[in-house]
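A further point concerns the way the authors explain their paired sequence and structure data. Since the whole study asks how a given chain folds, the encoding of that fold should be made plain. A single example would do more here than another paragraph of explanation. An entry of this sort, consisting of the sequence and the corresponding backbone structure tokens, reads as follows:

_____
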Amino acid sequence: MEIVAVAVSLIALIVAGGVGWYSYQVNLRQLKILDRRADLKLKVVVDRLAGVPRLTLRAQNDGTGTARDFYWHLWMPVRFTTQNLVSDKAGPLRWEKEEEIAGVGYRHYQGFHDEPVYPTRSVSVAVVSANGPFQGAAPIGWQFTSEDGTFPPRDKSGEAKPGKLDVEIQDL
């Protein structure tokens, strides 16, 4: 009788251990899935159209997860463009408001992008042309907000500050 009790106990221990191992493997897989996060950054492609600089503003995903359904905000220097941005999704976009940041006048544009941006890929969010011939630095402010957070990340105080990208425009 004692041998049967020990055998039953041993079988129960093996089954419980197997279930524990299976739970551990499931948890590991879930953690790997949850660890996949998007990391959006602004990427700018510069070309010229009839001698006038044209900027294609792209959302680049440097993370390990797919970004979808994200909001974008762009601050374009007033001295660079008086035109509207053209969004791939919404067509021409008028600026929301004019702001002055560190002594530079900006126009704030915003939009929503609903297509996925897979890791290591980028998508165009807007295109803008300069007022006319332009050479020098065009400081562009940017911010993306998705289910994975705000990009660039919030600072230590929890405040979300736009990123700044100085785009150098030379003769092509």
Q: What stands out?
A: The chain has a mean pLDDT of 80. The CA atoms of residues 56 and 127 lie 4 Å apart. The first strand starts at residue 40 and ends at 49.
